[in-house]
Amino acid sequence: MWKSWRLGSLVLTLAVLALAPAPLAQSVVALKLATVVPDGSIWDKNLKQMAAGWKQGTADRGQVTVFSGGSQGDEPTVLRKIRLDALQGASLTVVGLANIDGAFNVFNMPFFFESYDELNAVVEKLTPVLRQRADAKGFVLLNWGHGGWLQVFSKRPVRTVADLKGLKLWTTAGDDRMTQWYKTNGFQPRAMPIADVLTGLTTGMIDALPTPPLGAMAFQWNRYAPYMLDIGLAPVVGATVISKRTWMRISEADRATLQQSALEVEKRLQADVPKQDRFAVGLMQTQGLTLTKAEGPEWKAEAETLAKTMRGEMVPQDIFDLALRERDAFRQRKPAGVAR
Fold first, then answer.
1. Rounded to 5 degrees, what angle do the CA atoms 51, 53, 56 make?
2. pLDDT per residue as tens digits for the range 251-277
3. Distance of CA 224 to the CA centre of its chain
4. In what order do the strands lie in the sheet with 62-67?
């Protein structure tokens, strides 16, 4: 009887195991990620390398399709699509990031940073706070993207503040507060999507635009704005974000793989973009670009005025003060930063 009971128990155990569901394989997560960067540009290539790295590192479980060149619309449109889950992520400029949280405007302050070293040091200190603010709005900040340094490209030479205020200046559509800020400070902003800038230049809707040299060359804006004021308005800082809803569908192991691939992109852009930005200036000079220098002491005064008007209005006071404190601390530790 004992043997019979043992045999019956074994049969029952096998039956239960046979009926139990098999362990589920980790599911495939397919992300659609949009960006306005030009197809084939250094930023586009790095995003696609990130996608390839995640796919390989997760044995094809993690898949990213990158839509470049603004094919999914401007950044406010892309953010609306993410919230509807038509897209799951985006690589955004500060304009798009500021639509998530105004704290990201801290990187849009004219003349606030003097060097890449200074910028990188402040970014490192601000990242935990900005991650939290993005998370509260339903986004995961995956990595930073570096776009070069804004210079002023124009149809005619710009040397003074008055010269710049006399031109119709492009600003990105979708940020009404920034457009109004320009107007309040005496500029003539013309808001339009990045895809319409070339048309704006050729039709006279705009006379000048702030853009990094690498961007001007990639979009060929220098053909219609052949003067560059070499002044270094502000660094171009972007970031890749993913909706928190999508992030929660990814296993912890696959999240770590994506974060590692994204970090590699961040480091490559941090190293490569400044060099390519300088190369772009030299190449465009061979194509007819003329460099001008800022004249007169009013530029410094204008910079201080513009920064003050952004504190509490365009940039939350606590973020502004944190950035200022970390920037000044960096200058005390290492006053000679790597030039932009």
1. 110
2. 999 999 999 999 999 999 999 999 999
3. 25
4. 62-67, 29-35, 89-92, 235-243, 139-149
Pairing of strands 208-211, 151-154: antiparallel
Task: Please give the C-alpha separations between residue 12 and each of 16, 18, 215, 268, 270, in angstroms, as whole numbers.
Answer: 6, 10, 69, 59, 62
DSSP character at residue 311: B
- Rounded CA separation 153/212 (Å): 9
Nearest to 96 by CA among 240, 229, 267: 240
Map residue 15 onto helix, strand or coil: helix
Q: Which two tokens stand for residue 257?
A: 């793989």
**Which helix (H) or strand (E) is 64 found in, with range?**
strand 62-67
What token pair was written down for 20?
């139990």
Q: How far apart are CA 10 and CA 294, in angstroms?
A: 88
User: Could you give the CA distance from residue 165 to residue 162 in angstroms, rounded to a whole number?
Assistant: 5
Nearest to 114 by CA among 231, 270, 213: 231
Type of residue found at 120: N
33 neighbors 49 (Cβ within 8 angstroms)? no
Alpha helices per DSSP H over 185-316:
197-203, 213-219, 244-247, 252-286, 298-310
Q: How many CB atoms lie within 10 A of CB 295?
A: 12
Distance CA 180, CA 152 (A): 19
pLDDT for 335 equals 57
Is residue 329's pLDDT more than 80?
Answer: yes
Q: SS3 for 339?
A: strand
pLDDT value for 208: 96
**206 CA to centre of own chain:** 24
| Cβ partners under 8 Å of residue 181, min gap 6 | 309, 310, 313, 314
The pLDDT assigned to 123 comes to 96
